[in-house]
Design brief:
With 196 residues, the protein is mostly beta strands. Helix content is 10%, strand content 35%. It contains 2 helices and 18 strands. A hairpin with a 2-residue loop joins β14 and β15 (137-139). Mean pLDDT is 81; it is low at 1-21, 107-112 and 192-196.
Length: 196
């Protein structure tokens, strides 16, 4: 019976929606009360919906699991059309998958994409707050401030969909690359063959 009032609410929401979100064709609507939508506790304020009525983006009213990570209250979440986690904008520096990442939007990044996920919901990238070792690789963080968009991108840590580290900027020499360079790691281990 709880779905009938929610359905009526959503129909009213779509009739009143008039403006677009960052996602093409997403409709913005005002949510009058904290409301659970597709399992997410969306805070009152604005939320965006895909034309089929599914949730595109909202600010969460309480801590919640999003993709494979736990996010704090006030985080802006954005979903793929299939309902999986897409982007996350943290309200402040927080732990994501055990690493300290920046909150807010890094300079030069689109709204709500400080942390991104693959369509499967697995972690794709985030921006480090401080220097941290990730899967044995010494990766550079922002130390809390950015001067430019290029500086922000330098602190982005990318992952393969299977969770293995793909790239980051080095804080010290590692595997023949100098500190300050961006390392690109293969998804599969490289096997050395004798005589080659």
């Amino acid at each position: 019976m709880k779905s009938a009032p929610l359905s009526a609410f959503l129909i009213c929401v779509f009739l009143a929606a008039a403006s677009l979100a960052s996602e093409p064709n997403a409709l913005r609507s005002k949510v009058l009360h904290d409301t659970v939508i597709q399992g997410y506790p969306c805070a009152r304020g604005y939320a965006w919906f895909y034309p089929d009525g599914s949730l595109n983006e909202c600010t969460v009213a309480r801590p919640v699991t999003f993709g494979a990570v736990r996010v704090p209250r006030g985080s802006v979440i954005q979903l793929w059309p299939n309902g999986a986690a897409r982007y996350l904008n943290l309200p402040h520096a927080s732990l994501v998958a055990g690493y300290h990442v920046i909150g807010g939007n890094p300079p030069g990044s689109p709204q709500s994409d400080g942390t991104a996920f693959y369509p499967s919901g697995k972690l794709r990238y985030f921006f480090l707050l401080n220097d941290q070792t990730i899967q044995g690789v010494p990766c550079r963080g922002s130390q809390g401030s950015f001067l430019s968009a290029s500086a922000a991108r330098a602190h982005r840590v990318d992952f393969y969909e299977d969770g293995k580290l793909q790239s980051c900027q080095l804080t010290q020499n590692y595997r023949g690359q100098e500190a300050g360079q961006r390392i690109m790691l293969p998804d599969e281990p490289v096997h050395l063959i004798a005589g080659r």
